[in-house]
Amino acid sequence: MPGKEGEEDLSKKIAVKTLERGSVVVRTITILLLVAFLSSTGLAADAPTDAPTDAPTDAPTLRNEMPSYLKSFQMTVNRQVRAYPESYFLSGQGDERMIALTFDDGPDGENTALLLNLLAEAEVKATFFVVGEKIQEYPELLKRIASEGHELGNHSFSHPDMRKLTNDAILERELLPTAELITDLTGLAPMIMRPPYGALRDESIEYLTEAGWSIINWSIDSFDWDTTQNSASEITEKVLQYSHPGAIVLMHTGEGREGTLEALPEIIASLREDGYQFVTVSEILEILGPGPHTI
Predict the structure, then answer these.
(1) DSSP state of 108
(2) pLDDT digits over 228-272, tens only?
């Protein structure tokens, strides 16, 4: 049997082991809580089990260096654009210097009106992915978007995470009611859609493809939605840094997007100086050709 000193040493070893195990448990709980939080936001799309773990750097994908919590989303869209090249798009292909600015979540109040003023002054046509609930709130703004020659796309009725909906619910509760509002107010019937958060299950892509829809995500994220990096200078830097022929740029309209409005004049001027022409999503896919693309 151990003596008094031996007992003290043994007690110390047991205490250390207990603390080590406790630290592991705390770290594990912290990681699980973080994963649960990110999943609840809809921003960190879960990568399917067959998603590549070593996607090459030249893979067709959004061009940004993504933060760690969006790496799985990046891997997922990278795989999906390869799996569904006829109906799921991040950009056009080819080497003509054309670029499409896209604006999500509107129409939404004064900022949308200011954005339309800015685009009209710059003679730029853009694509607006609109939300049904916002259309009901601002029908005249929707009419103005269409009357000024911009393209309309469907961004759902209530902006849900579509990964949590059945395919029938995606179509019947989200896309078709919004499509009906667009048609009633503008006479247009667009068949391009963008899922909220850019997130969609494979089976939903297949289902919507069968129903005649094209799914449009993006190759450049301006991060104007992220309040930690959405100053005008940060937005401008990202768009210019990752610009490429056939690019589709993710931006947003609505309140709280002052950085977007402030950034756009320099973005437009700089890209034009670099030889780019601004077109709509449908134009970029028709002119340059749909499908996976990198340069």
Answers:
(1) -
(2) 999 999 999 999 999 999 999 999 997 667 899 999 999 999 999
**pLDDT band with cut points at 50, 70 and 90 for residue 27:** very low
Whether 187 and 76 map to the same domain: the answer is yes
Alpha-carbon distance of 225 to 197, in angstroms, equals 11
In a domain? residue 59: no
Number of domains the chain contains: 2
For this structure, is 293 an active site residue? no
Closest to 259 measured CA to CA, from 294, 211, 224: 224
Q: Point out the catalytic residue in the list 150, 159, 252, 293.
A: 252
Residue 77's SS3 state is helix
According to DSSP, the β-strands at 127-130 and 151-154 are parallel
The pLDDT of residue 44 is above 60: no
Look up 104 and say whether it is catalytic: yes
Instruction: Supply the pTM of this predicted model.
Output: 0.79
Does 103 lie in the same domain as 13? no
Nearest CA-CA partner of 238 in 100, 62, 97, 70 = 62
Catalytic residue, candidates 104, 105, 161, 221: 104
